[in-house]
């Protein structure tokens, strides 16, 4: 028996669609910093339908390890058993800084509130961080809180999990809890305790609702998957995903089993192998969430839904109904055979076999499909997680992740100039791109060029890009209109342009690579801008010191700094910030702050020929040319 050609074409079509994003980054796969992207091996398919409800709770109640769940020492005067020395040390130091009080019993949660209808509202709220993350300590405290206030409380009929932070639900697991463990095999019992806790919650039999606003990523989404109903807001900040593959890991809290059971194998494998974010509308379409509401009504709707789950007016969430084609692909042996072949081909193509995480994710999903009953599939998953955590690939990817986060913080005591209005000189491809990303982040933008024709092309570039985003539903029409309203187009013929520039806090020049022209522009700008205004040049080759050299054209050299963007600006994440010897710390800090807000990865580099990127690119091109002359095939070099 074989699949019909129509079904096979459907599989191929879905695989190609899922691989689209991966192809866009394929050209970067040979660069060290692209390891994150290289893990995003395109694949479209995979999963099975497995219930995660009452059967698991029953399994848990009969499990011999039930009494060995998380310690309650986070809120009681008892020693907390720690799976690792490093965790114990961290827990000791942090617990000393928190003293429970009637107004705040827990470090990681607000006090539990129980409504008159018996809905326990549990709000994540990490006191020490801007975002909520799942850590060993949080899981210990969650178990203690649940046992003390929910599990044996007959007044609690249902539960709502939400966040007290505007920054989001739960941004994922604390990855440094994992990296601090030297013997990764000890992670297996730690994860098992976490799973025991989730099963312990299910065993109460009270319906659980996850109310999500902002990011619910990694372990945050896995927590929500253990709930009976999921509601998210329609905010642009709300996103869901399992990005562990980007760190060389796999979802370890049941994600490789619970996600396929909910949304189907193909949707789940796409999410897990690419690590991409799922926005609210797509999440509703694929069955990841049951309801999308406005942020203002999230908690009220969640509480009402929890009440409905108890009285029967709301039905529990179930697996998304599959089409005939998807049933043939996912639920028949021939369909799965073709599906997994296509998935493997996509992963092989995009990772060249260099990253073990995508293959282990596939293995866990396949194991769950073959062994749907009992808890063995979760054991297989956590053992796979520990093995991946011990790999050099995961260590390197976590190192890149750590480095990228550190790059978001400028190592300087200087305070940046408060920036409200940014002027961009030059409305060509670079200038218009800079203006676009600046307006999108809430700045008022002045876009100036020599004549209306040049200016019009720059404005059209931005509006066309925003129209495309709106058409593709990546931007609302309201946001499109708001972005356009922030941009003021100006030309040399506009009599009022000096008055507009009088309010600029930062001027970014993006004109031709001509030293005389750039110094002339500085002279014009300094005549009309306030003394605090920082002048940034987008040069890619001219020394910043030459542009800022004191003279008749330049009277404020301390305010001059390089901000070298890469084309196309809206798509390329890197930004080189180049101070010359006379640049003030405040000017550098201002450039860094604006670049970071623009969503760029900022690197501060020396004012030397080629700065950083082009300085690296030169030797690479020399070596590449030499290899070509020696007859090395281009395809072989691409794969090196």
Could you walk me through the main structural features you see in this protein, from its secondary elements to its overall organization?
By secondary structure, this protein is of the alpha/beta class. The chain contains 26 helices and 16 strands. It has an eight-stranded mixed β-sheet, sandwiched between helices. Helix 15 packs antiparallel against helix 16 and helix 19 runs antiparallel to helix 20. The longest helix is centred in the N-terminal third of the chain and has 21 residues. The protein is globular. The protein starts with a helix and ends with a helix. 46% of the residues are buried. The N terminus is likely disordered.
Gyration radius (Cα, Å) is 27 Å
Distance between the terminal alpha carbons, to the nearest Å? 41 Å
Low-confidence stretches: 1-95
- Describe the biggest sheet? 8 strands, mixed
The side-by-side strand order for the widest beta sheet comes to 11-10-9-12-13-14-15-16
Judging from the principal axes of the Cα atoms, what is the shape? Answer: globular
Global structural class: alpha/beta
Helix content: 40-55%
* Number of separate strands: 16
- The number of helices is 26
- The mean pLDDT is 86
Strand content: 5-15%
């Amino acid at each position: 028996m074989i699949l019909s050609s129509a079904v096979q074409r459907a599989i191929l079509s879905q695989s190609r669609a899922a691989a689209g994003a991966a192809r866009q980054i394929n050209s970067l796969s040979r660069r060290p910093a692209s390891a994150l992207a290289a893990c995003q091996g395109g694949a479209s398919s995979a999963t099975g339908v497995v219930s995660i409800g009452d059967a698991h709770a029953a399994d848990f109640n009969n499990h011999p390890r039930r009494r060995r769940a998380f310690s309650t020492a986070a809120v009681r005067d008892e020693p907390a058993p720690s799976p690792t020395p490093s965790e114990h040390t961290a827990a000791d130091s942090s617990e000393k800084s928190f003293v429970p009080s009637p107004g705040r019993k827990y470090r990681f949660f607000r006090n539990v509130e129980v409504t008159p209808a018996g809905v326990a509202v549990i709000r994540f709220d990490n006191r020490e961080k801007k975002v909520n993350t799942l850590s060993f300590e949080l899981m210990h405290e969650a178990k203690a809180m649940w046992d003390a206030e929910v599990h044996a409380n007959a007044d609690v009929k249902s539960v709502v999990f939400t966040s007290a932070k505007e920054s989001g639900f739960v941004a994922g697991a604390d990855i440094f809890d994992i990296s601090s463990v030297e013997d990764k095999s000890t992670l297996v019992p730690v994860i098992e305790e976490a799973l025991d806790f989730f099963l312990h919650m299910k065993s109460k039999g009270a319906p659980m609702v996850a109310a999500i606003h902002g990011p619910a990523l990694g372990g945050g989404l896995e927590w929500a998957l253990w709930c009976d109903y999921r509601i998210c807001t329609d905010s642009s900040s709300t996103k869901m995903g399992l990005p562990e593959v980007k760190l060389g890991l796999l979802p370890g809290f049941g994600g490789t089993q619970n996600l396929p059971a909910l949304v189907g194998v193909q949707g789940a494998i796409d999410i897990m192998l690419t690590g991409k974010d799922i926005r609210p509308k797509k999440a509703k379409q694929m069955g990841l969430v049951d309801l999308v509401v406005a942020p203002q009504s999230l908690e009220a709707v969640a509480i009402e839904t929890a009440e409905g789950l108890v009285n029967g007016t709301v039905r529990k969430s179930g697996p998304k109904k599959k089409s005939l084609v998807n049933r043939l692909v996912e639920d028949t042996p021939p369909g799965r055979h073709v599906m997994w072949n296509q998935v493997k081909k996509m992963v092989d193509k995009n990772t060249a076999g260099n990253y073990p995480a995508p293959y282990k994710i596939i293995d866990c999903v396949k194991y769950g499909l073959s062994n749907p009953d009992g808890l063995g599939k979760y054991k297989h998953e956590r053992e796979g997680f520990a093995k991946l955590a011990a790999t050099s690939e995961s260590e390197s990817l976590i190192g890149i992740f750590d480095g990228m986060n550190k790059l978001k913080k400028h190592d300087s005591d200087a305070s940046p100039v408060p920036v409200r209005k940014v002027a961009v000189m030059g409305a060509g491809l670079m200038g218009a791109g800079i203006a676009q990303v600046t307006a999108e982040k809430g700045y008022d933008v002045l876009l100036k060029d020599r004549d209306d024709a040049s200016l019009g092309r720059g404005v059209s570039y931005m509006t066309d890009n925003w129209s495309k985003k709106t058409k593709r539903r990546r931007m609302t029409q309201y946001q499109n209109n708001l972005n356009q309203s922030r941009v003021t187009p100006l030309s040399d013929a506009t009599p009022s342009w000096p008055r507009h520039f009088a309010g600029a806090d930062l001027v970014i020049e993006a004109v031709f690579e001509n030293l005389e022209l750039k110094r002339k522009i500085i002279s014009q700008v300094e005549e009309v801008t306030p003394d605090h205004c920082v002048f940034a040049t987008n040069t890619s080759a001219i020394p910043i010191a030459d542009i800022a050299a004191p003279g008749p054209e330049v009277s404020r050299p301390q305010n001059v700094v390089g901000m070298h963007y890469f084309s196309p600006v809206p798509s390329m994440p890197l930004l080189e910030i180049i101070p010359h010897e006379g640049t003030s710390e405040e000017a550098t800090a201002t450039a860094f702050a604006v670049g970071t807000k623009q969503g760029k990865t900022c690197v501060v580099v020396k004012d030397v020929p080629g700065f950083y990127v082009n300085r690296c690119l030169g030797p690479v091109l020399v070596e590449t040319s030499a290899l070509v002359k020696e007859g090395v095939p281009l395809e072989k070099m691409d794969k090196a």
